C-alpha cells in the first residue's frame, strides 16, 4: 500500500485537508515528506490549470490518487439527489468535467457529498442512480473509476454505511463504481471496521485515513494495524490517503501519519 494526502487550494471551506495552498507548494511538501501521491480536491476544473498540475505531478513523481468533488456540493450546491432536474443536470456536467481532468492526470473520481445530503427515498435513489450511470459510463470510456464514499450521519442522510453503498451499487449497476472507505466515518457508522473491509473486499477502490478524532493516525483510538492487516487480506493494494485536520500543524500531522503507517507496513511486510 502507498500513502497520499488530500490537498486543496486555500479557498476550500472543508477543514479536513492536511494541506491547503497552491499546488506548487502542497506538491513540494508532499514529495518532501515522502508521500507517493496527492489527492486533489477541486470545486470546478475550470478553476485549475490541468497542465500545471500534470507537470508538478511529473516534477515531484507523485500519483494523483483521486480527485475529490465534494466542494461542488459544499460551495455550489450541486447534487445528484436535488429535486430540481436542472441542478442534477449541472451536477452531472460538473462531474464529467472532473472526469476530463482525471483523464489528463491519470486519476479517478471521488463521489461523496455530490450525492447530496437528503435521506434516501425511492425517488432520491432513482434520481441519484441515473446521474451516477451517466457519469460512470462517461468515465468508463476513459478507464476511470468512481469512488463512492459512505459519509457519517451528521454530514449526510444518504449513503452512510458500506452496506448502503453496496445496495446503491445494485441499482446503479456499473462495475467502475467502487467503494471509498474512510476510517473516520467508519469509526462512527460501522459496527466492525475490519468485518466491513472484508465484506467490501475487491470492491474497495480507495481509502481515506484519519484517526477517531480526525487527527493523524496514531492520535486517537483506532487500531490502524488491524485495519491495514484487514485491507491487506482483502487484497487492497492501493493508496491510504490522509484526509485529516492539519493539527497541531500540517507538517507534524503528515510526518506523524507517515511514520505511524510505515511502521505498520514494516510489521506486515
Ligand atoms: C470527504 O472525503 C469526507 O470524508 C467528508 O467528511 C466530507 O464532508
Ligand atoms: Mn473522506
Topology, element by element:
Blueprint: E1 2-8, E2 19-20, H1 23-32, E3 37-41, H2 50-59, E4 63-68, H3 71-74, H4 85-105, E5 109-111, H5 122-140, E6 146-148, H6 162-172, E7 177-182, H7 183-189, H8 193-200, E8 204-209, H9 224-233, E9 239-242, H10 250-268
Parallel strand pairs: 1-2, 1-3, 1-9, 3-4, 5-6, 6-7, 7-8, 8-9
Helix pairs in contact: 4-5, 5-6, 8-9, 9-10
The structure holds L-Erythrulose (LER) and manganese (II) ion.
Structure notes:
This protein has ten helices and nine strands. With 269 residues, the protein is α/β, with parallel strands linked by helices. The protein has one domain (2-268): TIM Barrel (Alpha-Beta Barrel), CATH 3.20.20. Strands 1, 2, 3, 4, 5, 6, 7, 8 and 9 form a nine-stranded parallel β-sheet that branches. It is globular and about 45 Å long. The mean pLDDT is 96. L-Erythrulose is lined by residues 14, 70, 112-113, 149, 151, 155, 182, 208, 243.
Short description:
The chain is an alpha/beta fold.
